[in-house]
Amino acid sequence: MIGMTQQVRRAPLTRDRVLRAAVTLADATGIDALSMRKLAQTLGVVPMALYKHVANKEELLDGMLDVLVGEIDPPAAAGDWRTAVRQRILSARQVLLHHPWASRVIESRTVPTPVVLAYMDSMIGMFRTGGLSVDLTHHVMHAMGSRILGFSQELFGAPPSAPPPDAEIARQMAGRYPYITEITTRVAHDEASVVGSGCDDQFEFEFSLDLLLDGIEGLRLRGWTPR
Amino acid sequence: MIGMTQQVRRAPLTRDRVLRAAVTLADATGIDALSMRKLAQTLGVVPMALYKHVANKEELLDGMLDVLVGEIDPPAAAGDWRTAVRQRILSARQVLLHHPWASRVIESRTVPTPVVLAYMDSMIGMFRTGGLSVDLTHHVMHAMGSRILGFSQELFGAPPSAPPPDAEIARQMAGRYPYITEITTRVAHDEASVVGSGCDDQFEFEFSLDLLLDGIEGLRLRGWTPR
DNA sequence: ACCTGAACACCGTTCAAGT
DNA sequence: ACCTGAACACCGTTCAAGT
Q1: Distance from the first to the final alpha carbon of chain A
Q2: Interface contact A125, partner B, CB < 8 A
Q3: How far is B146 from B148, CA to CA, in rounded Å?
Q4: pTM, to two decimals
Q5: Span A144-169, pLDDT tens digits
Q6: DSSP H helices in B151-200
Q7: How far is the CA of B40 from the C1' of C19 (A)?
Q8: How far is CA B101 from the centre of its chain?
Q9: Do residues A115 and A66 make contact, with C-beta atoms less than 8 angstroms apart?
Q10: pLDDT confidence of B9, banded at 50, 70, 90?
Q11: CA distance B186 to chain A (A)
């Protein structure tokens, strides 16, 4: 027993354990509350011990995204490109919905990791084997942008989640923002019994995705070429 | 002269002066280097003096975005909806290009300010007066998402800006990411004399924007209705 | 050689003391 | 009543001292 410390009991710290703990902590407390110090604490370790497995916090964030990309379903083996791409992006979206902090972290990355590059490569492959030219695939990848990772690219997370305004404030809103009011009252009426919050996020995501995929398929059918 | 301090010389601190100084500082040093303390320093003021004009840093960031939205051109008076929307979004994009930190700040906002609401309202108005139904306009606003503010929604800022890899690394890349390589070599060949860095960002942005606008105009012409 | 406590150079914001 | 210095509770990371 002599010389045996509490540490011996713990599973040895690995890069993978660090990254997974960071994902769990961000899920639980949000990305703003994720610090190297708090992460070390949840692992029962001194802060500096983390720096053996990640060079710095940037590399930690990169690694956390790699974990999430690993959760996205692999591409379906058979079927047309449109269905396969659609399926995979909807899978990516599910991952992002389970980790709401991910979109802001992705936004802050400057260089893709090998894991993200591999994901992008396989996504490009789905367009290419589907019959899109190299040039068209190139522009399509730009057009899809972060949607390829399941981003909804909404302007605000959930603006209509605010408590229902009283009549006086509603009247002011209608005067100042007539067009917004026109839409929100329509939505409130349509879905009063369905959803309390407002829009159907899944419908909106699929509407946007299909708008792009339909446009792309149209270009492919018309044999789009540069210039 | 007695009792006259250095402060008397300075223009009095206003909310507007605080916000504009913050924008200038973020432009010059990046958003990560923007702190309440450094901002106060550039204004020749003690940090706590800022809190008379903004409640906290969140409100400062909101206000900075309001300044940028104010730089976007107002909608063109005449013309079809497609041209007017296109023009205005390209104007918003120019603003974002001049303030590269803006996209990450927008991403971090949770509630739109009155200034942003007014911008969204006028954008919705452009679709409505162009002949889109309330329902279609609603979904279209979701589909446009942050692109309405000039976002490119690219996955990474400038991935091909890396120094040209040597032959050995290039061979490894080609083996690991064959589809990415297929595109990047094509781009490098096409634009070798035009652009050193890689893609033509303006072209890619307009390609994506037109893909969406064409799709939307198609739905309008076909008289799209829900369900 | 490895590990780690203390220290450094920062943060945003509170609050009590000064005018 | 207004203003502000010091303090509080944090950061990410460096580095020298300990084993």
Answers
A1: 77
A2: yes
A3: 5
A4: 0.90
A5: 999 999 999 888 866 555 566 678 88
A6: 167-176, 178-190
A7: 22
A8: 8
A9: yes
A10: very low
A11: 8
Please tell me if residue B157 touches chain A, with a CB cutoff of 8 Å.
yes
Round to a whole number and report the distance in Å from the CA of A73 to the C1' of C8.
45
Of chain A residues 81-110, which have a CB less than 8 A from chain B? Answer: 103-104, 106-110
pLDDT of residue B205: 97
For the record, the structure tokens of A42 come out as 């949840």
Q: Is A169 on the interface with B (CB under 8 A)?
A: no
Q: Where residue B7 falls among pLDDT bands split at 50, 70, 90?
A: very low
Determine contact, residues B138/A187, Cβ cutoff 8 Å: yes
What is the residue-averaged pLDDT of chain A? 89
Q: Are B13 and B53 in contact (CB under 8 A)?
A: yes
The answer to whether the beta carbon of residue A124 comes closer than 7 angstroms to any atom of strand D is no
Residues B180-199, mean pLDDT to the nearest whole number = 75
Query: Are the C-beta atoms of residues A54 and A99 closer than 8 Å to each other?
Result: no
What domains can you pick out in chain B, each with its CATH number? 15-54 (1.10.10.60), 73-155+201-221 (no CATH)
